[in-house]
Specification:
With 213 residues, the chain is α+β, with helices and mostly antiparallel strands. It folds into two domains: 86 residues, Glutaredoxin (3-Layer(aba) Sandwich), CATH 3.40.30; 108 residues, Glutathione S-transferase Yfyf (Class Pi), Chain A, domain 2. It has eleven helices and four strands. A four-stranded mixed sheet has the order 2-1-3-4, with helices on one face. Helix 4 runs parallel beside helix 7 and helix 6 packs across helix 9. The longest helix is centred in the middle third of the chain and has 22 residues. The chain binds glutathione (GSH). Glutathione (GSH) binds next to helix 1.
Length: 213
């Protein structure tokens, strides 16, 4: 039994996308971050770092989205849908997954936190994190400039790690992403995947759930 502890945030959606790509059955345990459920004893026993996502795969509990995706690829991906079997491509997929955890993840996370803060925004922070996001989009653009469809070549955990974060920035029209045509085209390719669309809708919006019952 696979159980995903998640919320309606980019890091949680990385995992629901991967589970959908792999066609695995899983239970969703929605964690209410606003209500600070991540600080409750039961959740801290799963992840002392009080963050979603957490995956419980038949008693094996894993936190950190990159580690979870690697686990899913290693244990549940006989057809190489998210983790290539060719050693060089596999390492490229892992490399791009790590690149996200050190790049787009923390920088966009902090940029979002600065922008969400009530009142006057800290201009220096906006410049630091916004500038780094612009630089990172330039790096992605350079990588995609050889015509590859996805970061590692075939679609992989490297793309899944980036997509939910950058999709938000694209939808908000952040100039550092809308100016990068190749990055936008890559995101559009990912967005078209039915598994990505299903994964992005997890956990279900309680309001939508109420309307459909
Ligand atoms: N590096 C972690 C980041 C996870 C993370 O930041 N999760 C956020 C939601 S997207 C969270 O649970 N925040 C709650 C908190 O920090 O208390 C990962 O990739 O899994």
């Amino acid at each position: 039994m696979i159980r995903l502890h998640t919320a309606r945030t980019p890091n949680g959606r990385k995992i629901s996308i991967a589970l959908e790509e792999l066609g695995l059955a899983y239970e969703v345990a929605a964690v209410d971050l606003q209500a600070e459920e991540q600080f409750e004893e039961g959740f801290l026993a799963l992840n002392p770092n009080h963050k979603i996502p957490v995956l419980d795969d038949d008693g094996l509990v894993i936190w950190e989205s990159g580690a979870i995706l690697l686990h899913l690829g290693e244990r549940h991906d006989p057809e190489s849908r998210i983790l290539p079997s060719d050693p060089a491509l596999r390492m490229a997929a892992i490399q791009y997954a790590f690149f996200q955890t050190g790049g787009v993840g923390p920088n966009l996370g902090r940029l979002g936190a600065v922008l969400r803060k009530q009142g006057e925004k800290n201009a220096e922070m906006l410049e630091i994190f916004g500038g780094e996001m612009a630089r990172l989009m330039g790096v992605l653009d350079r990588i995609l400039s050889d015509g590859r469809a996805y970061l590692a070549g075939p679609y992989s955990i490297g793309d899944i790690m980036h997509y939910p974060w950058l999709a938000i920035a694209k939808n908000l029209g952040a100039p550092w992403i809308t100016e990068q045509a190749r990055v936008l085209a890559w995101l559009d390719r990912i967005a078209e995947r039915p598994a990505v669309q299903r994964g992005m809708a997890v956990p279900e919006d309680p309001e939508t759930a109420q309307r459909s019952t």
